[in-house]
Each structure stands twice: as structure tokens, then as C-alpha cells.
Specification:
- The chain is an alpha/beta fold and 229 residues long.
- The chain has two domains: 143 residues, no CATH class; 84 residues, no CATH class.
- Helices cover 33% and strands 15% of the residues.
- It has a four-stranded mixed beta sheet, with helices on one face.
- The protein starts with 5 loop residues before the first strand and ends with a strand.
């Protein structure tokens, strides 16, 4: 067994009761069962060198328009943050599949955020997210909004760019998913243009850092990497 420390940089967790709130999960899906830390420990064998994991949001159902209007469209993503707070602080509820001892494994949290909705909506969302996270807020290091299946041009919309600049000013990263296999080089080109626009006119210390994940090409597995200016 390897004796070097391991940090699992991208995992998804949810409880059985949360399955109906997952945008992608249907009853016949083989993942339509609890995937919490008990299942994670069984799958990994809990190696002694495992230092912890970074939780990445699980694509909860949301409604961008309702979120902007009255916040109701953000209900399930905010509930996810509340659940991660209980993991991070070691405050499990019965049936959630984690224990107080698991708290040390939660090294960072990357929740969902309404990135296409613009900076003003993002400001309001971040306030609600901090409230939901409570004392675990320091573990929130950035946010994700899935873009690989969005229409061409989504990444270059002004509201989305303004949200990215806001994240940079606040010291958060943005995790972006791309699908080069199905969407082709055009999506890669759009992503590079998005990064350029998000950094345009921004001081170096306020430039948002991009984490690229799920680059589904025929030649690559899932990966994560920092993308600089």
C-alpha cells in the first residue's frame, strides 16, 4: 500500500431522502441509492493514508428564474450545503450515513451556485449559502455550475462573466465541467474565451481561479487542474 498522503479531490455524496432532489437521477439509475460516507468508506477501504476529500455539488434540481425572483429556485442546493455542514462539523442526523468522526475528512466544499444569473443574484445567493453553511463556511472554497450541456454561447454571457469576476474578488474558485468528446473543440474554445473575459481588466490578486473537471474526451479520464490567467 502506498505510504504517501491521499486527498480525494472530487467526490459526490447524498442521502437516500435526497435522491428525488437530484436533477439527473431517475428511479432506475444504478446510483439511485444512498451514497454517503458509509458507502464511501466501503468503496475506498478507508486507507490509513487517506487525509480527506473535497466535496463537489451533486447537481440538485434548481430554477434560475425563481431563484432570482424570490430565492425559491435555490432551495435544494442550499439544503445540500446544510447537509454538508453537518458532515463538516460532525453533527449527523439518524440515517444520513456519517458519524461525528468523519468530520475531519471533509477538507473543502464546492457547492452549486447560480453563475448565469449575474453578480447581483450571486451576492444574494452567497449570503444565503453562508447562512446555510454556518460554522463550516470556511471550508467552502469555491462553486460549481455545470456548463458542459448548456447551449453554445452560455459561457460568454455578460451575467455569467460578472459572476465569475465576483467569485474572484471574494477569493473563490470556479469549477467548470466541459465535454470535449460530445461538444467538440468549439466548447474548449468557448471556455478559453470565458476565462479571458473573466480575467480582463482584473488585478492579478482578484482573478478567479478555474478548476477544470470532467473533460470527457476519448483519450482522457476525469481530471482536475488549476487554470491560471
Amino acid at each position: 500500500m502506498a505510504d504517501f498522503p491521499i486527498i480525494d479531490s472530487h467526490i459526490h455524496l447524498y442521502t437516500k431522502k435526497d435522491i428525488p432532489t437530484l436533477a439527473w437521477c431517475t428511479p432506475e439509475n444504478p446510483l439511485a441509492e444512498q451514497q454517503s460516507l458509509e458507502q464511501y468508506a466501503a468503496a475506498t477501504g478507508s486507507p490509513p493514508t487517506l487525509k480527506g476529500f473535497i466535496f463537489v455539488e451533486t447537481d440538485r434540481k434548481h430554477d434560475l428564474e425563481a431563484g432570482v425572483a424570490d430565492g425559491s429556485g435555490w432551495k435544494y442546493p442550499l439544503e445540500e450545503i446544510s447537509w454538508l455542514k453537518r458532515i463538516a462539523l460532525g453533527q449527523p442526523k439518524e440515517g444520513e450515513g456519517h458519524s461525528a468522526e468523519d468530520a475531519s475528512l471533509c477538507l473543502a466544499i464546492i457547492p452549486w451556485a447560480p453563475i448565469p444569473s449575474g453578480a447581483e443574484a450571486m451576492e444574494r445567493y452567497l449570503e444565503l449559502a453562508e447562512e446555510a453553511a454556518g460554522d463550516s463556511w470556511s471550508k467552502v472554497k469555491g462553486f460549481r455550475y455545470l456548463l458542459q450541456d448548456r447551449p453554445s454561447g452560455t459561457m460568454l454571457e455578460e451575467d455569467l462573466i460578472s459572476s465569475l469576476k465576483l467569485l474572484g474578488r471574494k477569493g473563490f474558485v470556479f469549477e467548470i465541467g466541459i465535454d470535449q468528446h460530445r461538444r467538440g473543440k468549439k466548447q474548449l474554445d468557448e471556455m478559453l474565451e470565458m476565462i479571458s473575459r473573466a480575467h480582463e481588466g482584473v488585478p492579478n490578486e482578484e482573478k478567479v481561479t478555474f478548476v477544470i473537471s470532467k473533460s470527457s474526451s476519448p483519450y482522457s479520464a476525469f481530471f482536475s487542474t488549476g487554470c491560471g490567467s
